[in-house]
């Protein structure tokens, strides 16, 4: 591992100032992804700026009934928070489905959003990879892409974003609070993560030095009826093969009044399923209609040779989650 | 690059000069002679390096030592008290919860941290209603302990031992 300096900034402003001006410094959250990538030689910061003591570690109610979740909140504390569990079960379930108890105790909300892809070529510095080493090529396209993207990929990169939490946040329409060299601003989700296009080296729209300070989840009463479901290769402690976050509200005639849906592990971004949502609104809450909505979404999929199985998997997972939610409505 | 710090491990203070690259696991094993915590994968994937930092279970292989100089650390060597073995340690022996024993220190620290989480009412991925208080049965224990692998497959004994202490 390359030698590096370790700094504990006094506050958010000085953290941002340390990263400004083209240094090779990086923020350190829980370190569960970054320390591993440094060990693998994928990340080689000259300075680590530990932000765990300066990013807020509390969850507060906003005046309009939403939640402001500090970027320093550990994943385990987020999932255990009574208001998260009651108002946004999909978020608690998504976080709990990820990693292990130990890792959730370490991982921060900010770091979770910015964790890197688990594409095996990206993590292996002896292999080419456009994301790690721009212009070197994408061996995954013709190699092992069983668990990579079916939506929105490019010639340059077919990687997926691995976070479960981000999928729930994209479904809920969360807003990310950022403090950058130019001041504070907000970035809506979906919209934080970007499609790879011709520049897969950038996972998100954030600029160098941008620090995530909080994630705001809007008031969304219908989210009390929401659910996260994750298909994976083993029953626990494993990244998603496909996951779905869904919020469903029915009216008195058992028609869909409103819904929010996002897929995980299918794209370079948490994939908000706009076509499925549009097909569902106003439709009767039946398995046939759920299947029609799922069809509307997966019609846009462009699977690769080894991951075509993800298309029916995404379809069936969505139908199942909606049916479960409708049953308890 | 090095940093001078004090590490509090099992209620003992150790003044140390550490390389910023050093993980807590390496510091414990190589510098402090606390070799109970084990290195299985060094990537956060197996749990054999689990210790408690400020009472919370974490993976010491992904923890940089410089980041925890202000927090009390407990390793398997610190689990037993004045009056003998920790209840989890006794239950592991009683239930044959290990064979080679390599994963055991991590299992014990993880179980101690997990029981504290459950006592605070934390849900898990298998809690039927995530908003309700969980009941710690076999399925819950298995899910909550999934960050600790055992190549000997001593899982039935591990789950039984933890279940007994949880009661
Ligand atoms: C074995 C294993 C299994 C896992 N399984 C899953 C899983 O099933 N599902 C899942 O979703 N995740 C999984 N994870 C990933 C885990 O959730 C992430 O590693 C974790 O959320 C990252 O958070 P962190 O605070 O540790 O980030 P760090 O590793 O500290 O940082 C990650 C990145 O974010 C940057 N960063 C950190 N904080 C900020 C901030 N506030 N502002 C700007 N930049 C910041 C860092 O510079 C770095 O680039 C797994 C990890 C491991 C090791
Ligand atoms: S899919 Fe993306 S991350 Fe994976 S090898 Fe190709 S360019 Fe690299
Ligand atoms: S050695 Fe830390 S998890 Fe395997
Ligand atoms: S007892 Fe041998 S690895 Fe668990």
UniProtKB/TrEMBL annotation, chain A:
Q: What is this protein called?
A: Xanthine dehydrogenase family protein subunit M
FAD-binding PCMH-type domain ranges (all copies) = 1-222
Pfam families documented for this protein: CO_deh_flav_C, FAD_binding_5
Which keywords belong to this entry?
Answer: Oxidoreductase
Q: Which Gene3D superfamilies match?
A: 3.30.465.10, CO dehydrogenase flavoprotein, C-terminal domain (3.30.390.50), Uridine Diphospho-n-acetylenolpyruvylglucosamine Reductase, domain 2 (3.30.43.10)
Molecular function terms, GO-annotated: FAD binding; oxidoreductase activity
Q: Which SUPFAM superfamilies match?
A: CO dehydrogenase flavoprotein C-terminal domain-like, FAD-binding/transporter-associated domain-like
Q: Which organism is it from?
A: Sphaerisporangium album
TrEMBL record, chain B:
- What PROSITE patterns does the database record attribute to this sequence? 2FE2S_FER_1, 2FE2S_FER_2
Give GO terms: molecular function aspect only: 2 iron, 2 sulfur cluster binding; metal ion binding; oxidoreductase activity, acting on the aldehyde or oxo group of donors
Q: Where is the 2Fe-2S ferredoxin-type domain?
A: 3-79
InterPro entries from the UniProt entry: 2Fe-2S-bd (IPR002888), 2Fe-2S-bd_dom_sf (IPR036884), 2Fe-2S_ferredoxin-like_sf (IPR036010), 2Fe-2S_ferredoxin-type (IPR001041), 2Fe2S_fd_BS (IPR006058), Aldehyde_Oxdr_Iron-Sulfur (IPR052914), Beta-grasp_dom_sf (IPR012675)
Q: In which pathway does it act?
A: Alkaloid degradation; nicotine degradation
Superkingdom of this entry's organism?
Bacteria
Entry keywords, A to Z: 2Fe-2S, Iron, Iron-sulfur, Metal-binding, Oxidoreductase
* The keyword RNA-binding is assigned to this record: no
Q: Which PANTHER family match?
A: OXIDOREDUCTASE WITH IRON-SULFUR SUBUNIT, OXIDOREDUCTASE, IRON-SULPHUR BINDING SUBUNIT-RELATED-RELATED
UniProt protein name: (2Fe-2S)-binding protein
Organism field: Sphaerisporangium album
């Amino acid at each position: 591992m390359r030698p590096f300096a370790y700094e504990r900034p006094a506050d958010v402003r000085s953290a941002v100032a340390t990263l400004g001006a083209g240094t090779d410094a990086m923020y350190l959250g829980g370190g569960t992804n970054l320390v591993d990538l440094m060990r693998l030689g994928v990340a080689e910061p000259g300075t680590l700026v530990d932000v765990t003591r300066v990013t807020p570690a509390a969850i507060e109610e906003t005046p309009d009934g939403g939640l402001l979740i500090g970027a320093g909140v550990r994943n385990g504390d987020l999932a255990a928070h009574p208001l998260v569990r009651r108002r946004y079960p999909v978020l608690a379930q998504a976080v709990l489905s990820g990693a292990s108890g130990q890792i959730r105790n370490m991982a921060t909300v900010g770091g979770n959003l910015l964790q890197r892809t688990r594409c095996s070529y990206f993590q292996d510095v002896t292999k080419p990879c456009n994301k790690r080493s721009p212009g070197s090529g994408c061996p995954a396209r013709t190699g092992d892409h069983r668990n990579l993207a079916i939506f929105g990929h490019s010639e340059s990169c077919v990687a997926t974003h691995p976070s479960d939490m981000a999928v729930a946040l994209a479904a809920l329409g969360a807003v990310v609070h950022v403090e950058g060299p130019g001041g504070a601003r907000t970035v809506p989700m979906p919209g934080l993560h970007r499609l790879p296009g011709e520049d897969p080296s950038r996972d998100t729209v954030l600029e160098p030095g941008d620090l995530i300070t909080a994630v705001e989840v809007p008031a969304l009463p219908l989210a009390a009826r929401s659910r996260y479901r994750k298909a994976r290769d083993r029953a626990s402690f494993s990244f998603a093969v496909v996951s779905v976050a869904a919020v469903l509200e029915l009216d008195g005639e058992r028609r869909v009044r409103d819904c929010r849906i996002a897929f995980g592990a299918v794209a370079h971004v948490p994939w908000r399923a706009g076509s499925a949502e549009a097909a569902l609104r106003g439709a009767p809450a039946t398995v046939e209609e759920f299947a029609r909505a799922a069809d509307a979404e997966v019609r846009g999929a462009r699977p690769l040779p080894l991951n075509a199985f993800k298309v029916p998997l995404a379809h069936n997972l969505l139908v199942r989650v909606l049916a479960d939610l409708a049953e308890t409505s | 690059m090095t940093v001078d710090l004090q590490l509090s491990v099992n209620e003992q203070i150790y003044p140390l000069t550490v390389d910023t690259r050093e993980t807590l696991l390496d510091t414990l094993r190589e510098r402090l002679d606390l070799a109970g915590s084990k290195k299985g994968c060094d990537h956060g994937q197996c749990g054999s390096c689990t210790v408690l930092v400020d009472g919370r279970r974490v993976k010491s292989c992904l923890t940089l030592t410089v980041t925890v100089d202000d927090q009390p650390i407990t390793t398997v060597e610190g689990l037993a008290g004045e009056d003998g073995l920790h209840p989890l340690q006794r239950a592991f022996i009683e239930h044959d919860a290990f064979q080679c024993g390599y994963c055991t220190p991590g299992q014990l620290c993880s179980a101690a941290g997990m029981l504290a989480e459950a006592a605070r009412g934390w849900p898990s991925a298998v809690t039927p209603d995530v908003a309700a208080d969980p009941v710690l049965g076999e399925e819950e224990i298995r899910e909550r302990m999934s960050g600790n692998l055992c190549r000997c497959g001593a899982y039935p004994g591990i789950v039984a031992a933890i279940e007994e202490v949880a009661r």
